[in-house]
Amino acid sequence: MFERMEAIMDRREGRRLRTIYWPALIENAGRLSFAIMRNVSHEGASFVGVSGVRAGDTISYKVANSEKIAAEVIWTDGDRIGVRNNSAVADLTFSLDQPYRSVRLPIEAPVSVFKLGAELHGQLKNLSQRGACIAHNAIFSPGEYLTLKIGKITIEKVTVVWTVGGDAGLRFSHALQPEVLRQALDILQQNMSHPSSLRSIAA
Predict the structure, then answer these.
(1) How far apart are the first and last CA of the chain?
(2) What is the mean pLDDT of residues 95-115?
(3) Which of 42, 169, 186, 202 might form a disulfide with 161, Cβ 3.0–4.6 angstroms?
(4) 21: exposed, middle or buried (C-beta count within 10 Å: 0-12, 13-18, 19+)?
(5) pLDDT-based confidence at 188, cuts 50/70/90?
């Protein structure tokens, strides 16, 4: 069924890149979710790993360094969806020739950081498959190794890449699996006490 719908979209929308495996951030009814973009064209895209979305819904999505893209859900099949952009967008496939930057999840929430066994508290500012940005009151230096804990998820061998004022950029030793990032995002959104902690996808 999925392949048939993909073929229909191909005929309607022209050539479509079929080898994409890009992390994507989707916003629907004020809630963020993490998914994988599998196909893309000027007119639309398809994603896998999406839940709680129905045909006819209006969503927004981002991949890599793209701007916020508004789209309508045209079809769903389990955790797969196909969307049609509300307006033509720039060709996202150019990113294949550019250094890839993981899509950032713009969510703020308390997190724990461990340095030399000591637990410190910080504020998550954004999260991606390959790293995070946190605000903190501790003293970190580039090159230091930390452990980051988000709810029940523990990420070890995290490297401090940069520090500016009270912020620190962290790099993970390996990219988080999509299911781990989805779990972390769910934990953060469930535990937030203030809706303002969840920032919409930046335009």
Answers:
(1) 34
(2) 75
(3) 169
(4) exposed
(5) confident
What 3 state SS string does 163-203 have? Answer: EECCEEEEECCCCCCHHHHHHHHHHHHHHCCCHHHECCCCC
- 166: tokens are 């009270």
Joined together, the tokens standing for residue 6 give 């993909």
- For residue 191, what pLDDT is reported? 62
Instruction: Say if CB 36 and CB 21 are below 8 A apart.
Output: yes
Residue 195 phi, psi dihedral angles, 5° rounding: -55, -25
- Using the structure block, give the residue that is written with the tokens 């779990």: 183
Torsion sign (Cα): 22, 105, 50, 129: positive
Residue 82, beta-bridge partner list: 46, 75
Three-state secondary-structure class, residue 147: strand
